[in-house]
Design a protein that fits this description.
Blueprint lengths: L6 E3 H4 L3 E3 L5 E11 L8 E9 L3 E6 L3 E4 L4 E3 L14 E3 H5 L3 E6 L2 E14 L5 E11 L6 E8 L3 E2 L11 H8 L3 H10 L2 H10 L2 H8 L4 H10 L2 H10 L2 H9 L3 H10 L2 H11 L6 H4 L5 E3 L5 H8 L11 E5 L10 E6 H6 L17 E2 L4 H10 L4 E5 L5 E6 H8 L17
Helix pairs in contact: 4-6, 6-8, 8-10, 9-11, 15-16
InterPro entries: CBS_dom, CBS_dom_sf, Mg_transptr_MgtE_intracell_dom, MgtE_N_sf, MgtE_transporter, PRC-brl_dom, PRC_barrel-like_sf, SH3_actinomycetes
Organism: Nocardioides massiliensis
Protein name: Mg/Co/Ni transporter MgtE
């Protein structure tokens, strides 16, 4: 090691970029791997879990790390790109140690609390060990948060014990700072028991966003541990197209029960999408694009596409239709590109900025037809219409990729140019 500080806290490592000696980023830190020892020696830090291109998680031994500072981790440049597989002797700090209930021995006093971080130090022999434990006490009376302590690991009882019901407050706080796709990768890699604890602690909106990024198998497993009422609430928070894909994977009786518990309008959108073949424009589309009347102004259109819940591809186009404005709408008059909106006076009407020179997709269009259509018109989204020219929804390039890529694409080896040491 060359320029590492005497102590590093694990929670501050998570998310740091990992660079090779040439200054090229090879990934991000996602967790710290430690092994507990039966003797009086502190737990040994054996390596980091690093997320590389494509959300694949690999193991990086501490011997391959040359420097750690506040902004980055630097490696020797040698990276084994085999997927990380946790051994039974290993413990993941962020995934398994955070929120563990422990007792602190301070003189004659014993304090109960939960782990919210751990400190890592490098010894004289160049090994890294878990030396300090940060613990917070439960809040008392009107105080939401209790007192915090940072103590020597030897003064902590229960660090090595697996709990029956471990909390998830601190891990969830970390997940909430990640993008949904990154949080989904973390949840996918958790042991089943820990995954259940985290799912129970996430709020509905966040869990819905994470579910949209998980594989069908993971989605079905998580839905199976939720009670029916909460499962229906989660489906309502998801995009209708993602909810339809998920419900289609459930047993028919379960699917029908959950649809019956959803709000009627939400369930209607999902049922309509499920009526189309999966690998068609109708089966991939979302029924909630930005839809405007022809007398809307450019300023109103820009206000709609600024909505934070819109994906980049959905915000790229607004669809101008005659009333009604809920799919299936009145006749689709044309689309307006966000770049065109930005060039027009805010007070002018969207009807004057229409692009009516592109063809529209039909609901029965195959996945190959959708791909060819987006490529031909250089689009990231396209309208889907019925025989009367009414807008049914929009299919986006991310919808297309979700259905074109193989289900196990996240687990496939990557061609990153990294060396396998």
């Amino acid at each position: 090691m060359t320029t590492s500080p005497p102590r590093v806290f694990a929670a501050r490592l998570v998310g740091l970029p990992v660079f090779d000696p040439q200054g090229d980023q090879v990934g991000k830190v996602r967790d710290v791997v430690v092994t507990m020892r039966a003797d009086a020696s502190p737990p040994r830090v054996v390596g980091l879990v690093v997320e590389v291109l494509g959300r694949r998680r690999v193991f990086m031994p501490m011997t391959r790390i040359t420097a750690i500072d506040a902004d980055q981790v630097v490696t020797t440049g040698l990276l084994n790109v085999r997927k990380f597989e946790q051994r039974h002797t290993e413990t993941l700090v962020m995934a398994q140690l955070l929120d563990r209930s422990v007792r602190i021995h301070s003189g004659e006093e014993i304090v109960n609390g939960t782990v919210y971080d751990v400190g890592l130090e490098q010894t004289r022999t160049r090994d890294w060990v878990l030396s300090r434990v940060a613990v917070t006490e439960p809040g008392k009376r009107f105080r939401r948060h209790g007192q915090t302590h940072v103590v020597d690991w030897r003064d902590v009882e229960g660090l090595l014990r697996t709990e029956e019901g471990q909390g998830a407050i601190h891990l969830v706080a970390t997940l909430n700072e990640m993008r949904p796709a990154d949080a989904a990768t973390v949840i996918h890699d958790l042991p089943a028991k820990r995954r259940g604890e985290v799912v129970a602690a996430l709020d509905d909106e966040r869990l819905a966003a994470v579910l949209e990024e998980l594989s069908d198998e993971d989605q079905v497993e998580i839905m199976g541990i939720l009670d029916s009422r909460r499962a229906a609430d989660i489906l309502e928070e998801m995009g209708a197209d993602d909810a339809a894909d998920l419900i289609a994977e459930l047993p028919p009786e379960t699917a029908e029960r959950l649809l019956g518990l959803m709000e009627p309008s939400e369930a209607e959108d999902v049922r309509r999408l499920m009526s189309y073949e999966e690998l068609t424009a109708g089966g991939m589309m979302t029924p909630e694009p930005v839809i405007l009347p022809p007398d809307a102004t450019i300023a109103e259109a820009l206000a709609h596409v600024r909505a934070p819940e819109l994906t980049t591809s959905l915000a790229a186009l607004a669809y101008v239709c005659r009333p009604p404005l809920e799919p299936p709408t009145g006749k689709l008059l044309g689309v307006v590109h966000i770049q065109r909106l930005l060039r027009e006076p805010p007070s002018s009407l969207v009807a004057g900025a229409l692009d009516s020179g592109i063809d529209y997709l039909r609901a029965e269009a195959s996945i190959e037809d959708v791909a060819a259509h987006l490529a031909a018109y250089n689009l990231v989204a396209a309208p889907v219409v019925d025989d009367q020219g009414r807008l049914l929804g929009a299919v986006t390039v991310d919808d297309l990729l979700d259905h074109m890529l193989p289900e196990d694409w996240r687990d496939r080896p990557l061609s990153t140019g990294a060396l396998d040491g």
